Amino acid sequence: MKKEYKKSIKRIKRNSKSGAKLKKNIINKIINKKMSFAEVLEKYPRSAEIFMKSGMHCFGCSMAAYESLEQGALMHGLNPDKLVDELNKKFAGSKAK
Fold first, then answer.
1. In whole angstroms, what is the distance from residue 87 CA to residue 50 CA?
2. 29-43: per-residue pLDDT in tens?
3. What is the percent of the chain with per-residue pLDDT over 70, rounded to a whole number?
4. Over the range 44-57, which residues count as b (16 or more CB within 10 Å of their CB) and which as e?
5. CB–CB of 80/36 below 8 Å?
6. Among the four 2, 73, 92, 94, which has the fewest Cβ within 10 Å?
């Protein structure tokens, strides 16, 4: 019985650590692929650097107000998840404009 108790305690500790890590990852996701370019640029003006570096020079066009990051990335042959990850790494922990 004592062994089972110790195993249960270890399992609870292990799960609580991974749960905290998961919660931290969710909180750090401040930008998602359904957001429009305009929305991201309004909140995080320095995101333009990442768009330019990725070859997405069209963020200044009229479609930027309506096109999602996912749509724009796919139109440029980019992986939308990687783009969003890069944006979140840059701006995680920073406050919006």
1. 7
2. 789 999 999 999 999
3. 64
4. beebbebbeebebe
5. no
6. 2
According to CATH, the topology of domain 37-91 is: SP0561-like (1.10.3910)
Q: If you count them, how many residues does the chain have?
A: 97
Region at 79 (left for phi over 0; alpha for psi -120 to 50; beta for the rest): beta
- Residues 27 and 5: their CA atoms lie apart, in Å, by 33
Do the Cβ atoms of 69 and 33 come closer than 8 Å?
yes
Tokens linked to 57: 């020079």
Q: Do the Cβ atoms of 45 and 37 come closer than 8 Å?
A: no
